[in-house]
Amino acid sequence: MKSVHSLLFCLLSLASFAQQPIYQDFDIDSAATPRGGMDYLTLFLQTNLRKPIRAEAEGISRRVFVTGIVEPDGRIAEVSLLKSLRPDLDREALRAFRLFNAWKPAQKGGVAVRQVVKIQVVFAANPPFQYVDGKRIDYYGTDLKLTADSGAAQYRQVMPIDSMGMPTGSMITYEKNRNNWKEVSRLSLVRRKNTGTSASGKPTYQLGYQNTDKQWVNRSMSYEITDDGTLVSKTRHGETYQTSYPTRYYDNGMVAETSREETGRILTTSWYPNGQIQQVRFDAGQFGSTYKFERVQSYWAPDGKQQVVDGNGDVVFESQRPSYADPSQQTRYTERGSYLDGKPQGVWTGRYADGSFSYEETYDRGKLQTGTSHKANRPNLTYTFREQLPEFPGGTGGIGQFLSENLVYPVDAQRSGQQGKVLVSFTVCTDGSLCDYDVIQRVSPSIDIEALRVVRKMSGKWKPGIQRGEPARVRFSVPINFSLH
After folding, report:
1. Exposed (0-12), middle (13-18) or buried (19+): which is 433, by Cβ within 10 Å?
2. pLDDT value at position 300?
């Protein structure tokens, strides 16, 4: 009955909006504006646009003008084209614009009203490329740099892709031999099931190309997708093994967070589910699949108010978390504190609304001085480190020594010349034991089994990770290199 009432309320609300007059910007006291500002709407659109493959192959730059009605609740409705450009760009411009539902509505006489807005959606130029029979063709010179001159090229790379640029088959590289092209390498498309799931609980798969060491190819893109093809994330891999720039998506296809390199640091930008800008921060570098936090540059509350400007300000974070008193129930989690030059400063507090968890910490320019936390039915804990990663005796050197003393190169792999790097992922439990093993980069069955055997042998020898004064389960990964040289 409750769901029926909720649906009826929504229908009545929509009907109410539809009956209200629609105003132009010159008929009102204050016009509708994007929360966060027009510059961040432009950034949102540029981040979310997926240029259709044929338009990208042409490298064209175009502007599509769209219109819509900003409703009194800040949503966009009745989105349409002002003028058609070409069908593929029209559809994509409308899709991206519909995703942004974070408007500060127009005001007339102190009341929020409906207003028409008109926006230009810009498709930026890009280097063109050949696109023939569903295949992208790129040419490279003797210096391995991309070139538009196919006649002077030394190498040709052919990759089958779908209408949005995702790979669909093997990537083949050819080398010019006189006037003929000779195949020199072929990378099969990898589709690997992940251990985790998407935000909606669906199984996910990693899609992309790996080299002979079973690592994602440098300067390539890998994708995380669900069974039905929904894009969960994509990652652009940099020049080195540990350098990558991920982009995460909400279930509706909107970008949730994206990272890119800027002046030697990683600039990460995130958005709320309605499209409003949330945070801009700098990260110093990468550890595994996550970045090491360095500095918060800007932060906006859900209502659009900017709380951190140029690294300074007071913030309130709110989210839903499982209760420590009853994990089957969700409770509101509220954190409060200040940033100085982008780092936590002074007293920070956090509290679950049901009282099952709380903390108080004191920082000096980002360095924790002291902290106290309380969980349901447990004594208070005092600590001077907010988080500590799991540690194997002797650290990285100790792991290397353990592997060298215990690793056995499979005989069949030696005979067939198999070698490469295996990446084994696992969870370090609160007692130092290991569980939830997963081989996420493989070489061959016998090598993979040996790598997993040795990692299992490390169980019980780890010092567990610590979070706010108590042991915590932490996901970890160890690369194991099998080399015949």
Report:
1. middle
2. 96
CA distance 352 to 412: 56
Q: Which segments in the chain show pLDDT lower than 70?
A: 1-19, 212-214, 218, 239-243, 284-293
Output the pLDDT for position 242.
Answer: 54
Common-topology check for domains 21-123 and 395-482: yes
Burial of 88 (0-12, 13-18, 19+ CB in 10 A): middle
For 188, which DSSP code? P
Looking at the DSSP bridge assignments, the partners of residue 479 are 423
Within 13 Å, how many C-alpha atoms sit on residue 242's CB side?
A: 11
pTM: 0.80
C-alpha closest to that of 254 among 37, 40, 97: 97
Angle of helix 445-457 versus helix 395-406 axis, rounded to 10: 120
Query: 21-123 — its CATH code?
Result: 3.30.1150
Separation of alpha carbons 253 and 316, rounded Å: 27
Q: How far apart are CA 325 and CA 355, in angstroms?
A: 9
Q: Where are the domains of the chain?
A: 21-123, 130-187, 312-384, 395-482
Alpha-carbon dihedral 400, 403, 406, 409, rounded to 10 degrees: -130
For residue 293, the model assigns a pLDDT of: 65
Other CB atoms within 10 Å distance of the CB of residue 266 = 20
Q: What is the pLDDT of residue 287?
A: 41
C-beta of residue 230 within 8 angstroms of C-beta of residue 251: yes
pLDDT score recorded for residue 286: 47
Structure tokens at 442: 């493989």
CA 448 – CA 278 distance, rounded (Å): 41
User: How big is the chain by its Cα radius of gyration, in Å?
Assistant: 26
pLDDT at 463: 94
